């Protein structure tokens, strides 16, 4: 019988594969005495050599596939690992204290992290992340049952206390069958990345790590949140059957490839994609997306060692837009902060970063970062359909100031004789309740709205979107959220402007009929979800659902909304 654990299913789908456990947390290491000190030193040296080799191969891969900036991370890590004082210190500890290599290594690394952590310097902060990364990789080799001791060539279920967005970005996509994390909520950025790849993911169960080991088979049901660790042959057989049924349902989605997105009664909708890199833009047309509704540009910054230059960004946006062959590319300007901390940006340490100096607030104070991005976008837009969207707008003053910086950049480009698009569409994310409440005012000055429900919901209910303990408050069926969305849609439509939803709820099967009833123009979803969502839209009668909107908005709570949605869908 398997060890059954109930977590929070945050990316739908089913996966059955061996686990790969990442020991990212030093707290899991305890001081074990060793009887053969010499053998322990050899074990340590072997691990160092293996990690060095691993980093070298990441380096070669990053240079070939991603670019110079990403590869610099691995260069820095390689140099840190080669530091002779680190090796000497750890070996001396093993020799004199007779303790296991993992413990001695963690002590040395933690001492270095403690020294660097006091520094405000962005370069030093980046080194802390590098040291943590190296530590995790070494523990994979040194911990009993660590990931590196099991030969796993095929797809795996990545298991860890927490995986950062950057760690996930680095993992080879085709080897990722599923993700299990003890931490994280439904819309934390690591989860969104997993969703973008279409990987089932369950989070928020404290006992995952204790019951996991690399190489053990796991079943991950991303819909129900049920996880089976070490299933019996009968259990595994049952889930393999379900997997086959799911694959069959996916084949039915294929009937909708190349078809227009229309409801059962013929109302047209546009199905856009959310992406985080120019590489992902290449998936949009093959997945049958109709453009990009949200390019989370901060991931260009997150995967680099220093801010990408204007020229690099220009190339990236152009490359992404070209992959879309004339379909629109909506780029959200830098949304750093919250759970996307970027060390080299010198963002202040804050007690509450989700409520702090982030996204547009930061950009307005940092023209050195903001202006090159706007300039790159304006230049690229001269050659392709690119639109600009500002994140985390809370007040009209912020929106106006952001547009003023954009005008300033346009004037500078004009003065320098550089071609750019002067009438680039400029929209905003509606993801802070104040913006939704003032939507009637904002829409006078914005070319379009995109409703970011991931943040809108966390700010509306004052519940961290990444905290599994407050997940019950981040319920997308909450009528407070639904009322805000409906009001925002109505204001945009009254002005004849376009409105889309780009938060996770845009692809929520239960809520899609309601968005259609509310009259949304576009849904922006993970590329992998396009055909499934199009198939669902084709079964929805928009006129019928329009008639249900008011009734649903008057319900008292999320539970009542969910029950009624189910009743209506069953008809
Ligand atoms: C949102 O907040 O809904 C959104 C789409 O932006 P992000 O998830 O990147 O914060
Ligand atoms: Mg957001």
Characterise the protein shown here.
There is one protein chain. This protein has 23 helices and 16 strands. The model has no long low-confidence stretch (mean pLDDT 91). With 571 residues, it is of the alpha/beta class. An 8-stranded mixed sheet has the order 1-8-7-3-4-5-6-2. It has 2 domains: 3-237, Enzyme I, Chain A, domain 2, CATH 1.10.274.10; 258-570, TIM Barrel (Alpha-Beta Barrel), CATH 3.20.20. Bound molecules: phosphoenolpyruvate (PEP) and magnesium ion. Residues 187, 192, 294, 296, 335, 431, 452-455, 502-503 line the site of phosphoenolpyruvate. Residues 431, 452, 454-455 line the site of magnesium ion.
Residue runs with pLDDT of under 50 for 5 or more positions:
none
Output the strand order for the largest sheet: 1-8-7-3-4-5-6-2
Give the CA-based shape. Answer: globular
Structural class per helix/strand content? Answer: alpha/beta
| Major sheet details | 8 strands, mixed
Determine the CATH topology of the largest domain: TIM Barrel
Report the CATH superfamily of the largest domain: Phosphoenolpyruvate-binding domains
In DSSP terms (H or I, runs of 4 or more residues), the helix count works out at 23
